Amino acid sequence: KRSHRVFCGRNAAADCAQRRPHKNKQSWMVSQGPQSQVEAQEPCGRFRLFRGSELVVVESSLCRLVEGGFYWGSLGVGEAHNLLRRRAVGTFLVRDSCQPDHLFTLSARGHEGPLSVRLAFTGGRFALEPALPFPCVVELLDYYAGLGPRAPVTFQSGVSLALASPLRKPGVPPLQALCRRNLVRTFGREGLESLPLSPRIRSYIERFPFKI
């Protein structure tokens, strides 16, 4: 079987893949306010070897995160919360997790302020809630952003989180990316199949067929 190490952080755009250490256990930790002791002391940059279908899932998710512009790499929890503090409720970003058993952390602006949640990765699927796994991080985010404030996720701590729109990294997005996003928002992913698009355009849309 093919095996590969995926490199995140600053090399993600080039490699479209990094991996962090990861154990197959589920943990939904919500972090608010100052950086937790664990995140402050655990060094980022550990690696896990992915193989087969698991490797495909991780590489695909990372490439789509980079394509979407809201993957902030090795950004720390304090930096992420500072970026989100003055943003609208529901604004979110994805960053590398410093925990040895998780790949990504979702940081978002909640009603009480910024918070961070580790995304579980088990059996080749990502999850914010144990009963609702997704084969791609961006698909997960697109689903919850589509629900909006109508169906927030409530964690065991009592903290609720609803997603709205991503916080993209600074820069002007390509015109074709804006057109792609508007097409998906207007027709939906399924509706695009009936449009008379060229194979090249259809392939470009499939690289990021999401509304966020």
TrEMBL record:
It comes from the Eukaryota. Residues 70-144 form the SH2 domain. Transmembrane segments: none annotated. PROSITE patterns: SH2, SOCS. Signal peptide: none annotated. Gene3D superfamilies: SH2 domain, SOCS box. The keyword Coiled coil does not apply. GO terms for molecular function: 1-phosphatidylinositol-3-kinase regulator activity. Keywords: Growth regulation, SH2 domain, Signal transduction inhibitor, Ubl conjugation pathway. The keyword Metal-binding does not apply. GO terms for biological process: intracellular signal transduction; negative regulation of signal transduction; phosphatidylinositol phosphate biosynthetic process; protein ubiquitination. It holds the Pfam family SOCS_box. SUPFAM superfamilies: SH2 domain, SOCS box-like. Pathway: Protein modification; protein ubiquitination. GO terms for cellular component: phosphatidylinositol 3-kinase complex. Residues 162-211 form the SOCS box domain. This is Suppressor of cytokine signaling 1. It comes from Callorhinchus milii.
